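Worked Example 4.2. Read the sequence first, then its C-alpha cells.
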Amino acid sequence: MPWNLIVILQIISSSFLTLWYRKTGQVLKNQTLQISFVVYICVAICGVLISFFANSFNLPAYPGKEALFYIIIEGIFIPAYWIIQFKLISILGAASAVVVQTLNYWTAALFGLVLLGENLSKYFIFGFIFIFIAVYLSISINLKNNNGQKMIKSINNSKIILVVLAAIFFAIGMTAEKIAIDKTGVWNYAFYGWIAQLIGATLFYYLFGQKNKKPINAKFLKFSIIAGFMTALSGFFFIYALSSGMLSKTIILTSSKIVLTSVLAVYFFKENNNLVRRFTALLLALLGLLMIFLE
C-alpha cells in the first residue's frame, strides 16, 4: 500500500476517533482511566491478531535486547502520556487540551529531527508551514464557543508542569516506538509493543484509577470497546506509516487531523460557527499534505 495513502487513511481514521472520544467523554463522565484501560485491552488484542496474520499465524520473532529496551520505554511513556492528557482535559477543558496536543506533536517532530537525525527538505518546510497555519486556524476556532466567548482556562505553574510532562512523555514514547519498529519490524512490534502498552496502562490504572472507579455497565462497554477498536485501526495505520517514513514527517502530517476534526464537527456536532475559517484551514492542510507528499 502506498505510504501517502496510509497517511491519508490514518488522518481520516484518527479524526473520526477524536470525534468518538469526544462523544464518549460526554456520555461517560469522569471514567477516563477506566475507558483507557479497556481501550488498551482492545488494542493489545488487535496487535496480537495483526501480528499472527502477518506472520502466517506463527509467533513473531523475539526482539533483541536493544529493541526490547525501546519497547519497554514506549510501553511506559505512551500510557503515561495518555493519563496526563486525560488529566489535562479534565482540568483545562477540551479547547485548551487541543493546544496541548498540538504542542505534543511539535515536540515529537523535534525529537525526530534532533535525536534521529532526520533531514529537512524544502518541500517538508513549506508543507509544515501550511499545516502549521491550518492547525492554528483550527485551534483559534476551538478556543471560542458559538457565542464568541473564550473557552481557554487559565494555566498556573502546576498545570504548566503537566503540559511540559505530556509533551516530553509523548515525544519520548513516539521516538522509542519509531526505533522499536525499525529494529523489530512493524508487525512484530504490533505484538510486543502494544502488549507492552497494555502492561503499562494496567500498572497506571491500578496505581491511579481506583479512586474514581465506577460500576461497569452495557453503555460503558459499548462506548469503550468501540473506542478501543477505533484506536487500534488508527494505530495500525500510524505504525504502518511510521515504519516507512520519518518520525517528524509522520507526526506533522498526523497533526492535520485537528483540521479535519474541526470540519467534521460541523456535521456531527452542529458546530456551524467560523465555517469560512474551518474550510480555509482544511484547504491549507491539503496544500501542506501535497507539499510533503511531493518530497
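Now turn to a second chain, presented in exactly the same format:
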Amino acid sequence: MDSRDLKKRISSGEEIPASGDKLPPPPVRAGEAPKYEFSGEKLQIEAENMYYDGFQLVGDAVASKSYALKLLNDSSWAIAEVNFPAGSYEAVANVLAPSANHTRFNLYVNRDSYLLYGSEPPIGKYELTTRSPASFTLDVPTTVTVKIQKNDIKNAANNGHDGMTIDYISFKKIK
C-alpha cells in the first residue's frame, strides 16, 4: 500500500491495524442502531458494534474484542437501543485516554447526559470509568437510546475531548 492510499484510508475513518498485528476481521458496520435486551445482572455493548459516525475504528489486540472506536470530532456519535426492565442501573465505559487533554466524553441515556472519564492523569492503558459512573433509575420497563457523544448539548462546561478511545459500555443492575 502506498502512502497516498494509506492517507485516504485513514482520512475515511477506516481501521488500520499496526503492522504485524494479528487481529480477527473487523466487525460489520451497523447500518442502524442495534437493539439489545438487558437480562440478568450485566450487559456489555461493544462500541464498534454500535451505529456510529465520526469515529475511527481502531484495531487493538488489548481491546475486549480486538477493536474500539476513537472519538474524532464534535460531530462524532454512536448509538444503540436497550430494553431495560424497571430498576436502578450503573453504566461505565472501558476507555483509553491518549493524554491528559483527551480524557472524557458524554454518555446519553435518552436525554440525560453523563460525563465519563478515567484517571487523571490517564494511566496509559484501557480502564473503566469507575470514578464517574452514570447512574439512573427506570420506574417501568423502558427502551432507552444510549448515545456516545463528545459534547453535552445542554452544558458546555461538560464538553468532552477528541482522541478518547472507547472499547465498550457496560450496564450493571444495582437494584
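Notes for the reader: Residues 72 and 170 are 22 Å apart (CA to CA). The radius of gyration is 16 Å.
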